[in-house]
Amino acid sequence: MYDNASPVPIMTINGCVIVAIRDDLDDQEIVSLQDQLVEEVARRSAHGVVIDISSLEIVDTFAGRMLAAMAQMARVMNARTIIVGMRPAVAMTLVELGMTLDGVETALNADRAIDTITGDRTKES
Amino acid sequence: MKERAASVALRTSNDVAFARQAAAKAMAAINASPIKRTKFVTAVSEIARNAVIYGRGGIITFEQVGPAGQRRVVAICEDRGPGINDVDAALKDGFTTGKSLGLGLGGAKRLVDRFEIVSSLRSGTRVTLECGAR
């Protein structure tokens, strides 16, 4: 369905759902992205989710809460969520806001995140 | 010296995104550092969302003030809501009447150089945020 289409392209590589958030999603777009990510994890039986936020200039309490909830939902579905590309200014702002993003893993870049997720899977099998 | 005021009407979550864009533009106009810009835009996002969710909508206005070299951005957000019963309590982390984390108002205060809130049960809530370039 086109009207529910994500404003953000989601792809799956090697059992990892990968999404690069473009700058300035409004609250409704963030919520619909969350729904689509969870659905994609189920549909592809994904082991992990990599969310690239390098184009985000800000992460406020709403976006932060959605990222943390996304990670929790993925965990319930046995997938690991790693956030990559957080700008230094965003990290400093989150700390001042008091947002700890509990349960959210971070990595420097998408390569490392995918390595971490697929590495886990190799060990398991 | 005041100039170049910009206003954004706040009715929907999409308007909160417009307010963020206007805030970023105003901070760019005073050559603010990336960290100051991110802090200010984040604070504006929290306050503008509060106006939409709790304040029945409103308006946020941005102004650049101060002499050359010490320019600052002032944002004034006014809503038409029921007002905040206890402003001091609302500023405490963890306070919320909704489903949020209750970090928005107190967090916004920590992110800017000057923060003022005036709320009355009759005329709604007015929040002033001020931030310099460095």
Automatic annotation (TrEMBL), chain B:
InterPro entries: HATPase_C_sf (IPR036890), HATPase_dom (IPR003594). Residues 15-129 form the Histidine kinase/HSP90-like ATPase domain. Pfam families: HATPase_c_2. It comes from the Bacteria. Coiled coil: none annotated. This is Histidine kinase/HSP90-like ATPase domain-containing protein. It comes from Notoacmeibacter ruber.
